[in-house]
Design goal:
Blueprint: H1 20-27, H2 38-44, H3 47-62, H4 66-79, H5 84-96, H6 100-113, H7 118-130, H8 134-150, H9 154-170, H10 174-187, H11 193-204, H12 208-221, H13 228-237
Coiled coil: 131-187
Biased composition (Acidic residues): 22-35
Pfam families: TPR_6
Amino acid sequence: MVGKFHELPARAESPPTLTEESVGEVENQQEEGDESSPLLQFLESNSEAVDALKSLLQQKLEVGEDEEALKILKKLVSAQPGQTEWKFLMARLLNEMGEIGKSRNVFEEILKVNPLSFEALFENALLMDRCGEGEAVIRRLEEALRIAEDEKKVKEARDVRLIMAQIQFLQKNVEEALRGYDDLAREDPNDFRPYFCKGMIYSLLDRNNEAREQFAKYRELSPKKFEVEGYLRSPLSRMKLFGTDEEN
């Protein structure tokens, strides 16, 4: 399970042991009506305990104990509200568990703080599209694009347009998606992402020569550690031609 998510935030070496029993024991001490449990109060002031809880979370994800992992994530979100990665992990885990509405709610929380978060916009857009909200997702992305343009955030505006092009493809508007990628490539020939996306589309259309050209350009321009696959490859590669983005 952990492989389906980004790496957990860095933790200290050899953290103290924290078991389910110790977590449950402290939680059971919580008095009814308290806003914060003793465990959360302890975590807020003890970084080693947080590191141990991260280790326990990773164990639960690795063995597929999603419900237990979700409980731990909720504690980490409460203990470290400024660590956005916990909310991303929670949203992705809820999605894997089939809790689409709850997953979207978490992404919306992230977007309230940062309405131009690329990951949150992209993953929330995929969920909206999966739920049949095709027109609504385009409006949502157009709103984000207006925010980026009004604030003169060029990079963020390009990111939103990249997402819009992929959503157009998922909605079977292939030519419009390709035009969007062409525009992005023409405006900034050094941005490798449009070439990758076009390569994926051409591959799915069995236009293999064109796909090879796009992938060659992508490899020429892309930095070694760019994790484009996490945001772009999976939703496309899991699709049969113009099918859904759900795995069979």
